[in-house]
Amino acid sequence: MPFFYLRSRRLFYYLSAAAVLAGSAAQAQVTPRTPPVYPPPAPLATDTLAANQVGQAQEFAVPSVIGMGPSKGVVAHIEALSNFSITSQINDREPKERTENTVTKNRRAFIKAYAPLLNNPHLKVILGLNYDREEFQFADPNKSVFYRDLEDKGLKVIGTQLAVIRPVDEVHWYLARVKAELNGDYTSSELNVSDYLRTSGEFIYGWKRSPYYSWGVGAQLSYTFGRQSLYPVILYNRTFNSRWGVESLFPARVTLRRNLDPKTLLFGGYTVDGSNYNIKLREPLGELRTLIVRQRELKFRLRAEREIYDFLWFGVEGGYRYNAGFSAFNEDNYRRSLFNILGGGRTQAVDNTLGGAPYVSVELFLVPPRKLLNRLAK
Q: How far apart are CA 230 and CA 250, in angstroms?
């Protein structure tokens, strides 16, 4: 009897405890103590800027929009053109010397790197470094002293820039950038910073209308059109749907974007590029021993970018380059001009006319790993 009594009593306790737990669970299902909390939706897989800079809320307003390609950390680029014609007239001689030739090589390469010095939702500071190199070869360099001076000369650019992106509130933002470069054929043993220094900058104030639409207005002081010029700019970034978008900084570039999938993007549009070099002549050009060489060009381009690995992308680009200008100036005259920024008061020492040419370029670039972006987005 005691044995069965103890077993019955123990069973009663187990059943009572189970009933209490079941009742509590049922009550919890009917009237939860706190409302359920759901995480915010994750950004698109291709929107690394949204994960890294925009954040999960509209309050972090920046120029980028969902659907844009990944932000680039390190870029290695090489570009080559087919042969194109060149006609040159040396104005510092009497009678003026006029020659025709063919450029058999115009190759460019650069490497750029960007690193965040400060990265929080309301202030971002980015440091950039770059090294560029350009070379020319001619079919017959002996046709002109200008060709001989430029033949196989390494035209270099070493630069640094500092960019600040400042979200003001949930809609407004501004971007400021300053850049300094050493442009020319210098070597480390004969570098005079004041001779080769080029400075530029920009300021844009913008509005983030939605995660898919951002625009702004401002001004740039740059060498985009060959000489240092101050001109207005309009930034317009917009993603219309899951496939199409526009990325532009008018008038310097306008690009239509096509998102094939999260790992493949296509682009088409145009860019305006310019360069400005200080070169020391191997052979004096009359009394001139130093020239400022200024280039201006318009590129119509098609471009494809594809992810190779989580943090490694590949880009290929092709198109047609129209040469808007390639002239050389007397350095002293160039620097004395009272209208340097506006572009007046200069005398061309060598006036060149270049033919257009198709071009192709390839590049590799590193982007923030997706795991890191997902961790920052949480």
A: 14
* Residue 251, preceding peptide bond in cis (omega within 30° of 0): yes
- What's the CA gap between 46 and 137, in Å, rounded? 41
Co-location of 30 and 53 in the same domain: no
Q: Are residues 201 and 343 in the same domain?
A: yes
- The sign of the torsion formed by the CA atoms of 215, 212, 171, 178 equals negative
Residue 137 lies inside a defined structural domain of this protein: yes
Tell me which residue has tokens 């770059």: 130
Name the domain count of the chain.
2
Looking at the structure, tell me whether residues 323 and 363 fall in a common domain: yes
- Average pLDDT estimate for 336-363: 74
DSSP for 250-281, written as a single string: ETTEEEEEEEEETTEEEEEEEEEEEEEEEEEE
Could you count the other beta carbons within 10 Å of the beta carbon of residue 367?
A: 22
Q: Is 210 domain-assigned?
A: yes
Q: Which residues contact 96 (CB under 8 A, 6 or more apart)?
A: 89, 90
| Model pLDDT for residues 344-356, shown as the tens digit of each residue | 445 678 899 999 9
Any domain includes 280: yes
Strand 84-90 relative to strand 213-225, pairing: unpaired
In tens, the pLDDT along 2-39 reads 444 444 444 444 444 444 444 443 344 344 443 343 33
Domain that holds residue 246: 48-377
CA contacts within 13 A on the Cβ side of 205: 2
Same-domain pairing of 80 and 100: yes
